[in-house]
Amino acid sequence: MNKIPVTQIDEAQIEEIRSYYPPEDKFYVRLIEGRFQNLRRLVSWPLLAMFFSLVWIQVDGQPLLFFSFAERTIYLFGLTLSWHDLPIMAGLMIAGACLLFFMAVGWGRVWCGFACPQSIWTWLFIRIEDWAEGKASQRAKNDKLPLTGVRLARRVLKHVLWIATALYTTLTFSGYFVPIQQLIVDLATWEAPLYTVGWVICMAALTYLNAGLVREKICLHACPYSRFQSVMFDKNTQTVTYDVARGEPRRMSRKQRAAMADRTDSVAGADNLAMAAVAHTVHDVQTREAAKSRGDCVDCGICVQVCPVGIDIRDGLQAECIDCGACIDACDGVMEKIGLSKGLIRFASEAELAGNSDGRNGWRAVFRPKLAGYATVMSCAVVAVMLGFMNTIDLLVEVRRDRLELFTRIDDQTVCNNYHLKVESFNQGIDAVTVSVDGLSGVKLHGQKEIDIKENNAAWRSYRVCTSQASVPRTEIQFVFSTPDAEVRKKTTFLTSSI
């Protein structure tokens, strides 16, 4: 790697970048442009668009994505799932968790930095703050001034926009469980139930606090992912890393050299001119020796300024780091500006930084046991979910015997049993179901033979089954529920005696 001598570096540019270091109690996130930030937006903005739009989309009068507790039904992109299909949703979550672990083993916390809702909403609120109150350096300066006039108006505008965004987020999220149109109408006309109003207020307040004020503390203190990442990571895991061997020792800034010169001048003032000359000579020798051994890091601090969790990546891997790549884009910009090669901060593994080729592109880095294990479990979960979707329940039936009366004897030969039946359809194409009984000769079914699903779905109906040809005390029978395309059978018992 060819390094440019320090005398060729335009340090005015570096001082231009070095505007401030974040204080310990509060830091101001500086927005940056770069390839990883573009990638993050390419991932997060479509996710935001899907979240805010899917709740309004309907196909053939049915929502595209909706979780109905009242109907015990899940509408999932054209599929209608019953509560009996909940294991499929569990399989989806297992597959998603395995995908998350697989990505963590391979590329660190890229989910946190690029697709996690916490990060997406945090960046969204930061952008609102940047638009309302100005850039990070301006916000840092304004916080030292009295909050009056234009600064007060900008601060109020920021919080109003934050509250509006939190409220819109809450309404959208609630719309996946309660019809969004009816929810908005009820809230606008003050006809919404008290528990609905309380839910909206609480969720909006939590969103406002979480994305606007708490932010990175959630990633460190509330999210378990940051705590067990050390268990998933190995020496071949690609994470955002500072190349210590290349960057250290850091180059001194103009301010640091000026401070050293001031200390030398103080020696000259205290002693004679000869000692001052010796001190200047030692200073020049030290400066030349330091120039030969300087690393590429110019200690501008911009990698700290752009970090949404307020850490210094040069201190090594930390639990707070979400691998968003903001510090990579910032550092690459500085390196390009001063004429050095990019990659001082980059996605790299421990093995790569140690000079192990397997850490970069060897087969061992790709097909390692931990990565293969998560991939295998994820594949099995995906296959199970696909099989589940292929065998969803279109018609759910339940049969219950009348517990108050086991059987009724009409005469010496005729015996009747009472049953309660419920038919619930999860297929929009099923309009009616025909009910019959099988397994018993001479049987007569008293009740509604054809059930209109559209009229009253999932309602309990009473039926009576009678026969004069039962020869044993207990007989197994089947209720048959027929549609034009399918048939569902439900077993039960027919009793003629209490013995």
UniProtKB/TrEMBL annotation:
The chain crosses the membrane at residues 42-59, 86-105, 160-180, 192-211, 371-390. It comes from the Bacteria. Residues 288-316 form the 4Fe-4S ferredoxin-type domain. Pfam families: Fer4_18, FixG_C. GO terms for cellular component: plasma membrane. PROSITE patterns: 4FE4S_FER_1 (PS00198), 4FE4S_FER_2 (PS51379). GO terms for molecular function: 4 iron, 4 sulfur cluster binding; metal ion binding. Keywords: 4Fe-4S, Electron transport, Iron, Iron-sulfur, Membrane, Metal-binding, Transmembrane, Transmembrane helix, Transport. This is 4Fe-4S binding protein. It comes from Oceanospirillum sediminis.
